C-alpha cells in the first residue's frame, strides 16, 4: 500500500491570495489575474510545467557497403524544433544538416541528432571492401567478418562450398524459414579436392567458401530466403556470389570456357554422388532419343558444354563420356551415369540456385554441376576425403579434356 504524506502547513501564497480577495470587492473580481495564476503556481496548482524535448532517430542502426554509399537518417522531435547533426568519427562517415550520412572508410561511428537539450544516436557501420588490382593465386581473400573466403586458382575450374560453414555470429539472427541443416565436412572436403588438383597438376581451382553456418545464411538460395532481411547476412551473400562471378570471369579471360562445381553433402539412403544438372528425375527417366530431341540440353546447367560437343546430349549427360562415367572410372558411384541413368523414385538433388545462376543455362561459357556427396567412405575421415579429392580431380580433368580439349593449359 502506498502511503501519502500531506503537508498540513498553509501555503503562504494561498494566505496572500485570501487577503487580496478580502480587499477586492466582489463585483470587481472578473477572472483570474496574472497574480492569481502566479499564486496558484506557487502553491503547486494545476498549471503544467513544459515537458522536456525528446528526439528519436530512425533507423537506429545503419550498414553501408562501399565508400560513397549513403543513408538518410530521420529525426523526430517532440514538440518540434530545429535539429543539428554530428558524426563522432567523420573520417568513417559524415552527416549533413538534413541527416544524409555518407560512407568514407571502413569503421563504425555514432551519428547524433540534437534539438534543445535532447539528443538521440544512430550507429552507422561502413564496410569498404579493399580494392584488389589483381587477385593472386593461392592467397586467401576474406570478406567482412571472415564470413566468406575466396582462394583464387589457375585452372579453368571454380568450386564453391555454400553449406559447410560453422560461424554463428550474434549480429545475424537464426533464419526462421527454409532449410538450415549444415553439410558436415564439406569445407574440409573442398580443401582436400583443391590439394589433389595442386598435387596432380601443379595448379589449383578457384575456391569460394561460406564460413557461416546455414542457420545464419544459405548462399544456395535467392537473397530473400538466404539472408531473411539481415544486412550482414545479405552482405555475405553478395560477397559469395560476387566471388563466384569474379572467378568465372578470370576463367573465361584465361581459357574462354570452364566448369563450375557447387559442392554439397547429402544424407540420402543410397550412398552415391548425385550430379545435378537442373533436370528433374522425370526428365532423366526419358529414353535417350527423347532426351536428345526435346531441347533438354538448353534447359540444363551444362548448356554451353552441350553446344560445344558433337555428342548427343544423353551421352554427355549419362553415357560413356559423361561426368558420371568419369567418376565411375575412379571407383565413385554416381547418378546420372551409365550404371544409374536416372534416380527413379529415390531421393535426388537436381541442382539449386548456384548451379542455375553460375552454370550456363542462361548463357555464358562456364557450365555448372551441383555435386552432392554422401558421407560414409567420402566425407567421414580425412583419409577418405583425400582419396575422394584425388578421384574427383582425375574425373574432372578427363571430362574437360574430352569435351573442351584443354584443362591445365589454355587452348592454343
Layout: helices, strands, pairs:
Blueprint: H1 12-23, H2 34-42, E1 55-58, E2 61-65, E3 70-72, E4 74-77, E5 84-87, E6 93-95, E7 100-103, E8 107-115, E9 118-127, E10 141-142, E11 148-151, E12 157-161, H3 186-201, E13 206-210, H4 223-227, H5 231-255, E14 258-265, E15 273-276, H6 281-284, H7 288-293, H8 303-308, H9 313-318, H10 323-328, E16 334-335, H11 353-358, E17 366-373, H12 382-403
Parallel strand pairs: 2-9, 12-13, 12-14, 14-17, 15-16
Antiparallel strand pairs: 1-4, 3-7, 5-8, 6-7, 8-9, 10-11, 11-13, 15-17
Helix pairs in contact: 1-2, 3-12
Structure description:
Helix content is 30%, strand content 20%. It is built from 12 helices and 17 strands. The chain has helices spanning 12-23, 34-42, 186-201, 223-227, 231-255, 281-284, 288-293, 303-308, 313-318, 323-328, 353-358, 382-403; strands at 55-58, 61-65, 70-72, 74-77, 84-87, 93-95, 100-103, 107-115, 118-127, 141-142, 148-151, 157-161, 206-210, 258-265, 273-276, 334-335, 366-373. The strands form 4 sheets. An 8-stranded mixed sheet has the order 10-11-13-12-14-17-15-16, with helices on both faces. Strands 2-9-8-5 form a 4-stranded mixed sheet. The chain is elongated and about 85 Å long.
Amino acid at each position: 500500500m502506498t502511503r501519502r504524506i500531506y503537508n498540513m502547513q498553509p501555503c503562504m501564497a494561498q494566505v496572500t491570495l485570501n487577503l487580496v480577495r478580502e480587499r477586492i470587492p466582489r463585483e470587481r473580481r472578473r477572472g483570474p489575474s496574472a497574480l492569481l495564476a502566479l499564486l496558484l503556481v506557487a502553491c503547486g496548482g494545476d498549471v503544467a510545467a513544459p515537458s522536456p524535448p525528446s528526439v528519436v532517430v530512425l533507423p537506429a542502426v545503419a550498414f553501408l557497403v562501399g565508400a560513397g554509399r549513403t543513408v538518410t537518417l530521420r529525426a523526430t522531435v517532440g514538440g518540434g524544433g530545429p535539429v543539428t547533426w554530428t558524426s563522432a568519427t567523420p573520417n568513417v562517415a559524415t552527416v549533413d544538416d538534413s541527416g544524409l550520412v555518407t560512407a568514407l572508410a571502413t569503421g563504425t561511428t555514432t551519428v547524433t541528432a540534437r534539438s534543445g537539450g535532447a539528443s538521440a544516436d544512430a550507429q552507422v557501420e561502413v564496410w569498404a571492401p579493399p580494392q584488389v588490382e589483381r587477385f593472386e593465386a593461392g592467397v586467401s581473400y576474406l570478406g567482412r567478418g571472415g564470413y566468406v573466403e575466396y582462394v583464387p586458382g589457375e585452372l579453368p575450374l571454380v568450386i564453391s562450398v555454400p553449406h559447410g560453414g560453422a560461424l554463428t555470429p550474434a549480429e545475424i539472427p537464426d533464419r526462421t524459414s527454409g532449410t538450415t541443416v549444415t553439410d558436415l565436412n564439406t569445407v574440409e572436403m573442398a580443401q582436400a579436392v583443391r590439394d589433389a588438383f595442386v598435387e596432380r597438376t601443379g595448379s589449383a581451382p578457384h575456391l569460394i567458401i561460406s564460413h557461416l553456418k546455414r542457420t545464419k545464411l544459405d548462399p544456395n538460395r535467392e537473397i530473400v530466403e538466404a539472408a531473411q532481411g539481415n544486412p550482414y547476412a545479405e552482405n555475405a551473400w553478395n560477397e559469395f556470389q560476387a566471388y563466384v562471378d569474379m572467378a568465372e570471369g578470370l576463367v573465361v579471360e584465361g581459357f574462354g570456357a570452364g566448369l563450375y562445381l557447387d559442392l554439397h553433402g547429402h544424407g540420402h539412403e543410397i550412398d552415391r554422388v548425385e550430379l545435378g544438372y537442373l533436370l528433374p528425375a522425370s526428365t532423366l527417366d526419358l529414353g535417350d532419343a527423347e532426351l536428345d530431341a526435346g531441347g533438354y540440353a538448353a534447359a540444363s546447367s551444362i548448356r554451353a558444354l552441350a553446344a560445344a560437343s558433337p555428342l548427343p546430349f544423353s551421352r554427355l549427360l549419362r553415357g560413356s563420356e559423361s561426368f558420371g562415367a568419369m567418376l565411375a572410372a575412379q571407383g565413385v558411384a554416381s547418378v546420372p551415369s551409365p550404371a544409374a541413368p536416372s534416380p527413379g523414385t529415390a531421393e535426388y538433388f537436381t541442382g539449386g540456385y548456384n548451379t542455375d545462376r553460375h552454370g550456363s543455362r542462361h548463357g555464358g561459357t562456364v557450365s555448372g554441376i551441383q555435386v552432392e556427396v554422401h558421407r560414409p567412405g567420402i566425407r567421414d575421415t580425412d583419409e577418405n576425403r583425400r582419396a575422394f579429392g584425388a578421384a574427383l580431380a582425375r574425373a574432372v580433368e578427363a571430362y574437360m579434356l574430352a569435351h573442351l580439349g584443354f584443362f591445365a593449359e589454355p587452348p592454343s
